[in-house]
Every structure is written in C-alpha cells, then in structure tokens.
Design goal:
Layout (H helix, E strand, L loop, with lengths): L22 E3 L1 H12 L2 H10 L4 H18 L36 H22 L4 H17 L16 H13 L9 H11 L12 H4 L4 H15 L5 H14 L1 H6 L7 H14 L2 H33 L3 H12 L11 E2 L2 E2 H6 L5 H8 L14 H6 L11 H15 L15 H13 L5 E3 L7 H9 L8 H15 L2 H4 L15 H17 L11 H15 L18 H13 L9 H11 L23 H11 L6 H14 L3 H12 L5 H9 L6 H20 L1 H22 L1 H10 L8
Parallel strand pairs: 1-4
Antiparallel strand pairs: 2-3
Helix pairs in contact: 1-3, 2-9, 3-9, 3-13, 3-19, 4-13, 5-7, 5-9, 5-13, 9-19, 10-12, 10-13, 14-18, 20-27, 21-27, 21-32, 24-26, 25-31, 28-31, 28-32, 29-30, 31-32
Length: 755
C-alpha cells in the first residue's frame, strides 16, 4: 500500500490519475481468472460483459489491459514499481505508428486532434469503400463491426465512483456519458441509435448481453478481443484514467462507426477536444505519457479493425456459391443430425453425416448435388426446394437470405454446373487475434498481489470498498456482509410500523398499496410531526451531528452507481435509476455535484478531511467510528447490482424519502442559525420531493420493474420479487430506527446488530 497524503482535501479535485497502487486478489480468484483467460475470445468477451460482480473478472480485466498496453507503450503503467523501458517478448504485431508520426511529450489538444484527424482521413477512404459494397458483403461488415460499435463508451460506465468523485475530469467525462446515454432515456442513447441504424440496413441482432450475440454477429476472434479490451477498461477505469481519456478521445474522434453507418456523431469532435484540453491542464509528464499510450493503442486498434473489415469484405466478395452454401451447412449441421430420419446422401444417413465431428462440407456438397433431392421435379423445382418452402418439413430452418443462396445453388446444379468445390475458410484477423490472445495468456502484471484480507476494521473496510478496484479480494466479505444485513433487516417486517421516520412493516404488493404506503410515511412520519425548533443546540453539537451524517453523504448515491451499465440499460427502470444517479452528481456540472456540496458544507464548519480514497482518511478523527456501518452497507450492496438489484430498488426508495420532512428541515434551521452552509441539506429537500422528485421516481421505478416481472413471469413471481425489494427498504430503516431496534431487543432475545 502506498503512503497517502495527509493534507485535507480541498475542492476542486484536480487529480489526473490515482496514485499507482497494487491490485489485491485472492488465490481462488487467480485460479478462476486463469480459467477465464484460457477460454476462447468470444467466451472472454461474454464473461467481461455479463459478470460485473466477481473478483476473478477484475483480475482477468487487469491481465487484458496489461497485454494490450504493453505493445503500445515502452513504459506500461504498473503500480508498485517504477516502469521500465523494455518491451515484452511477445508475438504481437508491431505498433503501426511510425516513429515520425508519434506525438511529442508536450503535445497540445490541438496537436493531438490534428494527429487523430490524419488517421481518420486515412481510415475514411477505406470505410467509404465499405459503404458501397453489395448488400450481402455489407451485411457481413456491419455485423462484424456491431460488437465494437454497440459497446463504444462502456469505459465510462463506472468511472464516476466514490474513489473519483468529485474529480474535475471525471465530471467532464460524465457529462458526455450522460449525453451518450440519451440523458437517461434508453431510446435516445447512442447504443439504441446505432441499433436502429443497423436495422435500417437490414442487420438485426439480439441485445449485446444475449448469449448468442457474438454468434449472430459472426464475430471474428479479433473483434471479440478488441471488445474485451474496452470491456476490461470499463472494469478498472479509475486506475487507468489517463489511458481512458486517450481511448475515449480517439475512439469517438475517429468515428469509425459514424462513418460506416452514415450517422452524425453524438459527441462532436470539438466537445471531445475540450475535455482532452481540460485533462492536459491537469496532467503532469507521467500522466501525459500514459495518455499518449491510450491514444496510440486506440488508434492502432481502430486501424487494425478497419483493415480487418476490408479483408473480410474482400474475402466475402471472393466466396464461391459453393463456399456460401458450405458455410450455411456448417452453421446448421450441429442442430440437424437427428431430424432427417432415414434420408441418405452419398449412401450415408444424414443423421450420421451431420453428427460426425469430422464433417467435410466440400465432400458433402459434392455428393449432395448428385442426390435425387436436387433433381428437377415436374413443377420445375426440386424435393429440397419444396422442403424449405412454406408447408415443407424444413420451412423456417433457413432465413430468407440463406434460402436465396440455396436456391441459387440448386439452380446452378440443375443447369449442369459442376465446379470444383473449394471451401474458402474465413481466417480474417486470425494471426493478429492469435498474437493478442497469446499476449493475454502470458500477461502477469507485477502489480498484482495475491493476499487474504483477514478481518479489517470498519475504517479499513471502508477504505478498501472505496478503492475496490485495488482491493477486489474484499468482494466476498462485502457480499457476505450485504446478505447478512438484508436478512437481519427483515425483523422490521413485523415491527417496522413503530419506526420514527420509516415504516418497514411488510405488506402484500400492489401498485396502489405501495403508493399508499409511501404517501402515508411521507405525511405521517416526515411532514406532519414537523415543528420549528424552539431551542437551537449549541454550535459544537450542531457540528458534531453534521459530521455523523457526513460519512454517508461522502458516498452519496453509491448504492446505484453500478446499475444500468452496458447490457443493463434496456428497461425503463434502468434509465430512471441512471437519471437519479446523474442528478446526484450534477449531470457532470461540478457546482451541482452532491459530493462537492457536502465538502462545501463541511468546510463552512471548518471540518476538513482527506479524500475518502486516501489511506489518510482511515486516521481522520472528525467522523465517529460507530457510524461507518451505514456507509459500508451502501458500498457493499453497490458492488452487486445484479445479485441485489431488487434490494437496491427498495433501499433507493427508503433513502430518497429519508431526505424529506422534519429531520432535514431541522438541520437547515440549525445550520442557518450559526451561518453554516446548508446547500447539501437544501438540495436534497428539493430534488427528493414526493411529487415529482427522487422519492416519487423511486416508487415509479419499483412499479415499473414489478410490472415487467408480472408480464414475463406471472403474478406469483411478483410477490417473491417484491419481498426482496422491501427488505432493501427495511435495511435503511435498520440503520435509522435506533430507538425501535432497542425496544425490539428488550422485548425479544438479543439481536446481534451489525450497524
């Protein structure tokens, strides 16, 4: 662990990079990461995309990043030791930027923009030719590019996190992330617009998180590996901020997907350049070198992929009719073996031919074109043609395009054509993919440390959770803690009605019942009890009470900062949760960011703390030890947005409502009395309102989610899912209803509270 600065944090947060640090993993995670890395490229892509919770995926991501960056910088960023100047002994293709085309160390944003514009101009010529291809070939090119086009920008998904807020550059980038996410509306997002553009061109693919997405896109291994790098970067964005800034600028400024699809860029180059210039103002020499590494890598990857697309187009255009038919046969053969009963071709049962792992498509087609199934019938067709038409036993097996290829081939066979059948295998990008896969397999970053965490104190656990990218071995402990807390909070299902600020007593779900409960809590527990304070506590007491709230405020909205990421931004509730988090961080506008506001409020009381990402925060003396549990619970559940999605919905409702009414109004009165800044309290009193603010939105989100459950799984599933939602609500009450819990403890056997 590196030594942390002892100075108090003073906004604005002008970091250009987090301090280099080690990455801790458990021995179990190392073994699992080895297995992930050993899988084929498509499996690596899918695991990185679909698993955002496991420790092993973070280790796999670290190895992927290391393998890609080492080829494109002589000084790869490595924590725990000074970078060296050696290049690893690997088989990767050389960096395709010649020495006289490299950026100088002091390159300005305009210099970088001119450099990237030249690359874009070169690529545009190739991409222009790809746009004029005949339909079948263009379809293959568009499909091949789809995985990268649809994940573009994923590296910003969790860049905004407790360790990086309220960084100037992170918020500048978040503003662009918010734009790309359609400002919270999935149907206005870049991802959705790209899908619409592809569908207008006749390319229909499942959602990117679907199990068959890569197969339906006919993704080559090189495409999957490029995508794996971008996904890996999205898993460790805080530690690779300089590289990320470079990748972000180059990927979008080159605009390969915009050029290929004929779309206007959602992020115009001048806006991208402004963020780049803002970063350069913050960066020192080391950060600039890392930025340039990201620029070189992104440029090399896009050049490599566009070159591969051109090679794919050339290969596809050169395919013989027989090769096209062979590809269709090979695609469907694994599912056809037992469906043909006693049908024979070449004297062999089709069920044996298609279940043979050594199936030779060329040999099969040679025999098939002489078989009776292709002979012309009296109506001018053939038994095979009739079989694949409507009413035939094979109708629906082949899509429209495949059926057209088969028909053209049958026509050629019936016309007497008997060309030599030579199958042209698709090896496009194979050499580059093999080299990159080999580099990933051999990657062993020496900033990776295998360690067990023992039993950390609450302060150390808080530090580890804030810096979870570097302490992934804390995840199992976080999962266990979250599960235990959610389970123990269910005690309030029976006793929650007695809460002072909440009512966690259980009720059977219906939309009307939930709306009624939230409104009743608002009026009866938060608003009607309010009376202005007749006597204001002394100044020190006011400051102390504010510090007890501060620990939770410093991780404001952490519980939802990992939801609605790539592959999880399809439902209406996903966009709504994303919008709430965006509001909490001011949509990237620093003065409106709630972490900025809490520091502003604390500074008005002369409370100055190290940033929570610093090790020095573990030694601060202003925030009491006994209050860490509340923030720890938020940070723990945040790490498991899939496992605890339901609970997060319920917790979100509870905490948004907790910011309303008597408690908040009293705090504002006390702060104003002593001339302290009430900006943080005031902001929550307004944006969390029950009419249209976060509290109302939180109820709407739950209703929307459970409506989808009802329509897909049935009403019986709704109550099961609802129970989990409501225990999320109860887990907030578990921390704020101290008097009620003490009463329960005296009436029953002692409860081992974790708060």
């Amino acid at each position: 662990m590196t030594a942390a600065p002892t100075l108090a944090f003073e906004p604005p947060d002008t970091i250009a990079a987090l301090a280099l640090n080690t990455f801790e993993f458990s021995a179990v995670a190392r073994a699992e990461a080895d297995a992930i890395i050993a899988r084929p490229p498509d499996a690596l892509f899918q695991r990185l995309l679909r698993d955002q919770e496991s420790e092993a995926v973070l280790l796999a991501a670290r190895r992927v990043i290391d393998a890609f960056l080492r080829q494109h910088t002589p000084t790869p960023p490595t924590a725990g030791r000074p970078p060296d100047d050696r290049l690893p002994d690997n088989d990767l293709p050389p960096d395709d930027l010649p020495p006289d085309d490299r950026l100088p160390d002091d390159a300005s944003a305009d210099d970088i923009a001119a450099h990237v514009a030249k690359i874009r101009s070169d690529l545009a010529t190739t991409i222009g030719s790809l746009s004029r291809l005949e339909p079948d070939t263009r379809d293959a090119v568009v499909r091949q590019r789809a995985p990268l086009g649809l994940l573009g920008g994923c590296w910003l998904d969790v860049l905004s996190q407790p360790a990086t807020q309220p960084s100037v550059i992170v918020n500048r980038l978040y503003s662009q992330h918010f734009t790309q996410r359609g400002e919270g509306n999935p149907r206005r997002s870049l991802h959705y617009l790209r899908r619409r553009q592809m569908e207008a061109a006749g390319v229909y693919l499942p959602e990117i998180g679907a199990a068959d997405f890569l197969a339906r896109a006919d993704a080559r291994p090189l495409t999957a590996l490029h995508g794996s790098f971008y996904l890996a970067l999205s898993r460790l964005p805080a530690n690779f901020l300089p590289e990320l800034v470079g990748v972000h600028y180059v990927f979008h400024a080159l605009g390969v997907d915009d050029l290929l699809g004929g779309m206007a860029p959602m992020l115009p180059e001048p806006a991208l350049r402004d963020v780049l210039a803002a970063y350069l103002e913050l960066a020192g020499p080391a950060e600039r070198r890392r930025l340039h590494a990201g620029i070189r890598l992104a440029a090399a990857l896009e050049r490599e992929h566009v070159t591969m697309l051109a090679e794919l187009a050339s290969w596809h255009q050169g395919l013989s009719l027989e090769s096209k038919v062979a590809a269709i046969v090979a695609r469907h053969a694994p599912f056809a073996g037992g469906q043909h009963q006693d049908v024979r071709v070449g004297g062999r049962l089709l069920r044996d031919t298609f279940t043979d792992p050594g199936l030779d498509p060329a040999k099969f087609l040679t025999e098939f074109r002489e078989a009776g199934q292709l002979r012309r019938t009296r109506d001018g067709l053939s038994r095979f043609t009739k079989a694949i038409k409507f009413g035939g036993p094979m109708f629906g097996i082949f899509d429209e395009r495949e059926a057209a290829v088969f028909q053209a081939w049958v026509d050629s066979v019936q016309a007497g054509e008997r060309p030599e059948i030579v199958i042209s295998a698709n090896t496009v990008g194979a050499a580059q993919a093999a080299a990159r896969a080999s580099a990933i397999a051999r990657s062993a970053p020496d900033d990776v440390v295998i360690a067990e965490i023992g039993t950390p104190s609450d302060r150390e656990l808080f530090y580890r959770l804030v810096n979870i990218e570097n302490h992934a071995n804390t995840r199992p402990l976080a999962a266990e803690r979250a599960a235990r807390l959610f389970s123990e909070a269910e005690i309030l299902f029976s006793h929650g009605a007695g809460g002072r600020y909440t009512d966690a007593s259980y009720f059977d779900y219906s939309p009307d019942a939930l709306y009624e409960r939230s409104e009743r809590v608002y009026w009866e527990k938060l608003v009607r009890p309010y009376q202005p304070l007749a006597e204001i506590p002394d100044r020190d007491e006011v400051v102390f009470l504010q510090t007890t709230y501060a620990l939770g405020a410093l991780v404001d909205a952490a519980w939802i900062h990992r939801v609605a990421n790539l592959g999880r931004f399809e439902r209406r509730c996903d966009g709504a949760l994303f919008s709430i988090y965006a509001d909490e961080v001011g949509y990237g506008d620093l003065p409106k960011n709630h972490i900025t506001l809490i520091h502003r409020a604390l500074h008005s009381m002369n409370v100055r703390l190290p940033h929570i990402r610093e090790a020095a925060f573990m030694d601060q003396g202003d925030l009491p030890d006994e209050l860490y549990g509340f923030s720890l619970h938020q940070l723990c559940m945040a790490l498991f947005p899939d496992t605890y999605f339901n609970e997060i919905l319920g917790y979100n409702l509870a905490i948004e409502m907790f910011g309303l009414g008597e408690l908040r109004l009293h705090e504002i009165q006390k702060l104003r009395h002593y001339g302290f800044d009430d900006c943080y309290e005031q902001a929550h009193l307004t944006i969390d309102n029950i009419s249209a603010g976060h509290s109302k939105q939180a109820v709407d989100i739950i209703v929307s989610y459970l409506d989808e459950v009802s329509r897909t799984l049935g009403d019986a599933a709704v109550q099961r899912e609802w129970r989990r939602v409501w225990r999320g609500y109860a887990s907030l009450a578990y921390f704020v209803e101290h008097a009620l819990l003490k009463q329960i403890a005296t009436e029953q056997e002692p409860v081992d509270l974790v708060i």
